[in-house]
Request: fold
Amino acid sequence: MNPRFRFFAPLAVLVLVLAACDGGENGGGDGGTVNMLVVFGGEELENFESMLAPFEEDTGIDVQIESSRDANAILQTRIDGGNPPDVAGLPGPGVMAEFARAGHLKEMPQSVKDILADEYADTYTDAGTIDGELVGIFAKVSLKGLIWYNPAAFSDAGYAVPESWDDMTALVDEIAADGTPPWGIGLESGAATGWPATDWIEDFVVRQSGPEVYDQWWTGELAWSSPEIREAWEAFGAWGADPEYLAGGVNTALSTAFGNGGDCLFADPPECYLHHQASFMSGFFETNFPDEAVAGETYDYWMMPPIEFAALTASGDLFGMFNDTEAAQQLMAYLVSAEAQEAWVETGGVLSANNNVSTDAYPDESTRRAAEILSSAEVVRYDASDLMPAAMNDAFFEGILDFVQNPDQLDSILANLDTVQAEAYGGEDG
Reply:
């Protein structure tokens, strides 16, 4: 079964990415160098480098990777200084659009366009197109809105996986009444601290109010103080800003790195029973608990149930080409190829949008099931915060941190976001 994701949002909105120029077929090159800036680290970086190894061997091209947790800030600094990397990961589609319209990104080569036309759903070409030019590619995708849990601990406690939203809220209340905070949350992520909670808000918006409201929100047409968006914040706050429902309390959530937000699932006795995070979380479990983490036994997930609407959220890792070289063009074509995509998904915790990557390539049932969920979903929306202008995205992060610490200040937080929204979208076209 070939993964095919349906992002039903306006074209310029989904996910964008890099750029390249004309020419440059994958493979058979004469060598050269590509300077690449990424945010990957640890095992994820090792897996990425492993995926690139065949490309370097076949083409003679040396991909020189610079990895930093603050890659986004480094990228902006280098662009401002007139010395951008050849290829770089992008903070999100909204920022990618800004880079493209400022003339920093290059258009994709024909080789990339051909692969997308043959091996991807049309929506990916549409999503990566800004003002008529293809400037974005998906290196990988993630399914959001997964509720992770420890099946062994769940069984011991007598809990059951919920089948509906009412079942889930009842389960959360039951866990809290039994004396253990239900949720493990980690919000720390360097300059992007707070982003895991934006995923919560997005999942509530699309499930409570539907995809049309979701699109009006991230495009700046619907105020943050509207009843629909307020409802989502309140739903998150009922769990994510209440110490009785939050493992370790608010300060622990604020100071815990997002990759450790689910560590409490593995404590003995459990310090939490639930963790809301994307499909890539399995990689953190395996890294953090190499002896204890066993897919299907000590960690598994269910999808956050529909509330009023059955819709999912997803995200992707974007790359952009800032220098138009033959070597960079070849690298771009390789990254979207079935060969590269299959090599990456085989490492685990990674989903591909390439239709020629069979679900059989996934190394475990967990990621295979996530790929199948995405491929069969009727409505999927891309991560809203990543689609927003940079100033709006930053303000969203800050608002989340203020809200978790002071949930009674929601009125002023949303009013401030309305003010930022008016400024951030003031100069944009539709």
In short: DSSP finds 18 helices and eleven strands in the chain.
